[in-house]
Design goal:
By secondary structure, the chain is of the alpha/beta class. It contains ten helices and 18 strands. The protein folds into three domains: 182 residues, FAD/NAD(P)-binding domain, CATH 3.50.50.60; 112 residues, 2-Layer Sandwich (D-Amino Acid Oxidase, Chain A, domain 2), CATH 3.30.9; 54 residues, no CATH class. One of its GO terms (molecular function) is oxidoreductase activity, acting on the CH-CH group of donors, NAD or NADP as acceptor.
Length: 389
């Protein structure tokens, strides 16, 4: 590891790897670090991603696809369903261990230096400008400087907090999640299932995402302020024991997902934040993979443009904030308002919303178009309100 780089990217998840790839392809000297000894581990994700646009970031490889999704069902608390389908593949259920490593390999092949078991412990800030990081690489302390630091270090982002760009999350803006990988069960292998209801998952939802013919990720996401002393795993264990009593739990994961509104600032002099480290998860769906890669690409491009222009000031890097706000930020802001409305709804209101949506014939819309509309434009809150009136 050297002492100086053009760009240092902290975190080798989808956002960080795409940012590193983008900057390296622009001819920059890039360091990509990951605090864990294995990229892609542990998995803290339902692993679903829409197919549209994915090829812009990575070449398709069946090794990281566990299932192809063509249908989706949304279940109301009373058992009523919205059913969406299409003939071609709408999305994939990934093997994140393989997928994330493939993205990191792409960054390495583009020219990035990749270091695992290497964490950033602090920022070097001089005269209000971020100049580098301090850290530990496999137990050895180091200091490395760069013209731009990209913080892509996940929901627990130290970079954003140390820079003063991110404050603590409110409990109502955090989903506490638990997930089992369950094998030996009878499921629909190409259909996503989402279940709503306060008995199943207060302030959130439960999912069943297929990972093959007889295997699925089954998980719950509960708003942290609605748990009342319980733990998401309690709800999950009850559901699995009731619906898949013969299933074999072969993996357990848990974690937190930010479901907040768009932060006020994502950049400062010498620093950009991307992915979950910028809290760019869709607050309605909890989906973060595509937003992570989109923001990573933006961060890599803007860092390269600023460095090539010789100006990494806060004013120059603020272009990143503008681009985020005019693209994925629109959906985040609108979907946050929808989330606030939905989590305040009773089971009866949720039943009425899903029944009203069926009357509006939304099931005729292909599942990929539904997902794209929600994640790129956001779901208009007034349409949701009108459905229950």
């Amino acid at each position: 590891m050297k002492n100086n780089y053009d760009v240092i990217v902290v975190g080798a998840g989808p956002a960080g790897s795409v940012a590193a790839t983008t900057a390296a392809r622009k001819g920059l000297d890039v360091l990509l670090i990951e605090k864990r000894q294995e990229i892609g581990v542990p998995v803290r994700c339902a692993e679903g991603v829409i197919k549209a646009g994915l090829d812009e970031f990575i070449e398709y490889d069946p090794k990281w696809v566990c299932a192809e999704v063509r249908r989706g069902r949304i279940h109301a608390p009373d058992g009523n369903m919205l059913c969406f389908s299409q003939e071609d593949t709408a999305g994939y259920i990934l093997d994140r261990k393989i997928f994330d490593r493939s993205l990191a390999k792409t960054a390495a092949h583009a020219g990035s230096e990749v270091q695992v078991k290497t964490q950033a412990t602090g920022l070097i800030i001089e005269d209000g400008c971020v100049k580098g990081i301090t850290g530990k690489c496999r137990g050895q302390e180091f200091e490395a400087r760069a013209k731009v630091i990209i913080g892509a270090d996940g929901v627990e982002s130290k970079i954003g907090r140390q820079a003063g760009l991110l404050g603590p999350l409110r409990l109502k803006d955090v989903e506490s999640c638990a997930e089992f990988l369950v094998s030996g069960i009878d499921i629909d292998p190409d259909c996503l299932e989402l279940y709503f209801g306060n008995k199943l998952s207060p302030g959130g939802y439960l999912w069943v995402f297929p990972k093959g013919k007889n295997e699925a990720n089954i998980g719950v996401a509960n708003l942290a302020d609605r748990l009342n002393g319980a733990h998401p795993i309690d709800y999950l264990e009850r559901y699995v024991s009731e619906h898949f009593p013969d299933g074999k739990i072969i993996q357990v994961v848990s974690g937190a997902v930010p479901v907040c509104n768009l932060p006020g600032r994502l950049s400062m002099s010498g620093l950009l934040l991307a992915g979950d480290g910028a809290r760019l998860v869709d607050p309605l769906l909890g989906a973060g993979i595509m937003n992570a890669m989109i923001s990573g690409r933006m961060a890599g491009n803007i860092a390269a443009n600023a460095i090539n222009a010789g100006d990494v000031s806060a004013k120059a890097l603020k272009t990143y904030d503008h681009e985020i706000r005019s693209t994925i930020g629109k959906a985040i802001r609108r979907n946050y308002r929808v989330k606030e409305f939905i989590v305040g709804s009773s089971d009866l209101q949720m039943n009425l919303m899903i029944a009203a949506a069926k009357k509006l014939n939304v099931e005729s819309i292909p599942v990929s178009e539904i997902f794209l509309e929600v994640t790129t434009n956001g779901l208009p809150i007034m349409k949701v309100v009108r459905m229950v009136n």
